[in-house]
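User: Reviewer 2 asked us to show a designed sequence for the structure in our supplementary figure. I'm pasting the structure tokens here. Could you produce the per-position amino acids so we can include them in the response letter?
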């Protein structure tokens, strides 16, 4: 069966039952399809006819379809061309990559050749640069060996710099071939160049010095001609002298500066780059030049300064003026020497300080014998203050480093003055205070105080128009009334207070106050023997209080701590040993010698002495003694009566069976007589005592401190008598003592108006 027949047969078959169209679909189909289509074949025929009709109706669509077909063929042709082109491009790319690779290889080869060329060129340049240092040997040697070469030549310093560069290069590169031999040759040339500099500087200093000395010697001859160089000894001429010296620095200073710059340059290098051997060469050269400078300066200055100081000592007999002039002269020299040194050198040197010390030692050697011969404490103190205030604080601190080296000698002179002061003060304490021998006028108290006040009053009348001088003379009478040892003690302390150090001052103050107090005790004993106990005690009280008041501003440390060895146990053991209480040669521990060696040891004792407390205790004891003496003197008779009454009362208590009345033992008449005599004695003796008290003690508070306990003792004693009268003599004709009247009388004796207001 052919294919068409199969299709026709298939199309004519009816649809299967399961594929029957729905009613809606059947209705839509019937509206479109013709009624005679009953099979698929009929449908295809109908569709072909329908398509043909539409194609005929739409011919433009056919044309468009043809165009599309043509375009499709064209696109296929283009795609084929593109595939061919892509194949060509891939082939070209492959060939390009091959060419590029070969080109890169060629470029790298050329670059390597260029780098190799540059490396060889750099190596050649480096070798050429390094060989330059080796090649410089012949050129530098030729120039240095030239007899006409001078260090003042403008080409000398650049030549020396180049020589140093060569030496440094060879030091930094010791592995180069023949570097050691070349370094040795360069060092020889360097040594030669530095020797030329050293010889020039040293010879220049020596030439200047010799010229100055020779001209100075010629100037000593009246027939000698004037010269530009002199060694003046007067301060007014020194400035001109140093100006002439500074003018010579222009030849030497550039060379010295060049040396110092090289040292500073290599000193500032880090440790890894430091060249100690190179630096030490120039340090040694600079040191030699400075030594030559200081040696020549010392030759010039030492004799001149010595002669000038000797001249000043002959011109100025006053030690104050001599020390002031000598110090100022020497400081002026030091200051200008400092400036002169820095015209040649810019770095500091210990040689400058040593030069100043040598010059200062000349001053010290000249001044010290005068200080040792000085006997006056006043002069020594004034010398110390001149050196401290005028020289150290005003001059040395103001001028600073230029005269700083002068300060140690001044300090040394001040220390010598302090030692001399301490020695002279110890002699003064021994001879004039401890060994003081008072005259009759020195012990004439209270007349000495009265005379001093009278003299002050006369001075006040004379100088009544000058208030300041009047006040001074009014205050002076206190000093005139002092015991001589008190005046010397306070004068000594006031002079030494700002002159010696605190520890030494405290030691001297303790000694002098102790000795002064002992002199008061000795004087008190003599005054008591000649004037009586009242004057002796008042003398002691007034002088101790004055001493306390006057030494208070000095802020003295009165406490002394001492450490001593106590040998009392040793002495006890020796007594036992010598007494034979223990056997000496017994072979046991109960042996006197063994006990002495092993058991007995000296003990360390720490003691503390306070002179201030001792003085206060002495003053307190003296006041107490004065109060008791006055009370006993004024109330002697009535105190005896009270003693008898006390004895009678004790007897009655011991024998109560034979008890008696006091009126039977002491009659009323006797009691009246004792009271009357005591009151009369009080009224007669108390005013002179108060008058003496006001003479010795001018301050009302000091008077009141003594008056108050005396008054209390008097009132208390008479109060006890009144109590006894009321108790034992109430039936007798005895009137009680009027205590208010006694108080009024005691107060009326006080003539000081300030005293009554207390």
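Assistant: Here is a per-position design you can include in the supplement:
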């Amino acid at each position: 069966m052919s294919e068409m027949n199969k299709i026709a047969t298939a199309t004519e078959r009816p649809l299967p039952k399961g594929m029957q169209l729905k009613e809606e679909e059947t209705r839509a189909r019937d509206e479109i399809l013709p009624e005679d289509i009953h099979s698929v074949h009929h449908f295809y025929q109908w569709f072909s006819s329908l398509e043909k009709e539409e194609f005929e109706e739409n011919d433009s669509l056919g044309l468009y379809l043809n165009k599309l077909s043509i375009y499709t063929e064209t696109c296929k042709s283009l795609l084929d061309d593109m595939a061919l082109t892509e194949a060509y491009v891939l082939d070209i790319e492959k060939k390009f990559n091959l060419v590029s690779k070969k080109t890169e290889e060629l470029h790298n080869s050329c670059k390597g050749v260029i780098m190799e060329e540059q490396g060889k060129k750099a190596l050649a340049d480096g070798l050429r640069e390094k060989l330059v240092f080796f090649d410089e040997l012949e050129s530098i040697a030729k120039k240095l060996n030239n007899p006409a070469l001078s260090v003042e030549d403008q080409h000398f310093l650049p030549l020396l710099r180049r020589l140093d560069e060569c030496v440094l290069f060879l030091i930094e590169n010791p592995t180069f071939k023949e570097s050691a031999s070349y370094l040795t040759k360069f060092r020889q040339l360097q040594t030669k160049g530095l020797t030329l500099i050293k010889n020039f500087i040293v010879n220049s200093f020596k030439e200047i010095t010799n010229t100055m000395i020779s001209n100075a010697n010629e100037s000593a001859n009246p027939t000698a001609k004037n010269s530009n160089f002199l060694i003046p000894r007067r301060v007014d001429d020194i400035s001109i002298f140093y100006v002439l010296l500074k003018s010579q620095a222009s030849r030497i200073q550039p060379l010295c500066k060049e040396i110092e710059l090289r040292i500073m340059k290599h000193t500032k290098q880090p440790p890894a780059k430091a060249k100690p051997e190179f630096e030490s060469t120039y340090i040694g050269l600079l040191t030699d030049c400075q030594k030559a400078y200081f040696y020549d300066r010392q030759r010039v200055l030492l004799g001149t300064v010595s002669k000038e100081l000797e001249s000043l000592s002959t011109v100025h007999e006053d030690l104050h003026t001599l020390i002031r002039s000598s110090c100022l002269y020497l400081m002026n020299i030091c200051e200008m020497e400092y400036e002169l040194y820095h015209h040649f050198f810019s770095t500091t040197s210990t040689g400058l300080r040593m030069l100043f010390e040598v010059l200062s030692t000349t001053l010290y050697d000249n001044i010290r014998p005068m200080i040792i011969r000085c006997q006056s404490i006043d002069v020594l103190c004034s010398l110390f203050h001149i050196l401290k205030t005028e020289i150290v604080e005003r001059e040395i601190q103001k001028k600073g480093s230029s005269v700083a080296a002068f300060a140690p000698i001044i300090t040394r002179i001040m220390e010598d003055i302090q030692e001399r002061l301490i020695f002279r003060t110890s002699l003064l304490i021994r001879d004039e205070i401890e060994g003081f021998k008072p005259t009759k006028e020195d012990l004439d108290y209270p007349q000495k105080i009265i005379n001093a006040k009278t003299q002050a009053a006369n001075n006040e009348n004379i100088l009544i128009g000058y208030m300041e001088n009047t006040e001074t003379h009014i205050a002076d009478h206190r000093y005139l009334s002092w015991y001589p040892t008190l005046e010397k003690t306070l004068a000594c302390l006031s002079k030494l207070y700002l002159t010696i150090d605190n520890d030494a001052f405290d030691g001297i103050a303790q000694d002098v106050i102790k000795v002064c107090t002992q002199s008061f005790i000795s004087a008190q004993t003599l005054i008591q023997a000649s004037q009586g106990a009242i004057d002796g005690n008042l003398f002691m009280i007034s002088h101790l209080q004055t001493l306390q008041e006057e030494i208070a501003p000095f802020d003295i440390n009165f406490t002394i701590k001492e450490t001593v060895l106590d040998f009392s146990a040793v002495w006890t053991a020796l007594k036992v040993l010598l007494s034979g209480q223990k056997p000496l040669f017994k072979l046991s521990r109960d042996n006197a010698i063994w006990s002495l060696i092993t058991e007995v040891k000296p003990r360390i004792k720490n003691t503390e002495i306070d002179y201030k407390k001792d003085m206060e205790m002495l003053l307190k004891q003296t006041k107490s003694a004065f109060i008791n003496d006055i009370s006993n003197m004024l109330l002697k008779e009535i105190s005896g009566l009270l003693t008898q009454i006390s004895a009678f009362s004790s007897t009655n208590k011991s024998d109560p069976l034979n008890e008696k009345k006091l009126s039977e033992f002491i009659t009323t008449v006797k009691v009246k007589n004792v009271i009357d005599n005591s009151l009369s004695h009080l009224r007669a003796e108390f005013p002179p005592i108060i008058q003496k008290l006001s003479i010795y003690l001018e301050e009302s508070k000091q008077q009141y401190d003594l008056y108050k306990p005396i008054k209390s003792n008097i009132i208390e004693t008479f109060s006890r008598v009144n109590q006894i009268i009321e108790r034992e003599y109430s039936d007798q004709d005895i009137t009680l003592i009027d205590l208010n009247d006694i108080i009024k009388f005691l107060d009326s004796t006080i003539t000081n108006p300030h005293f009554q207001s207390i």
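For the response letter, you might also mention the following. The longest helix spans residues 59-144. The longest strand covers residues 559-566.
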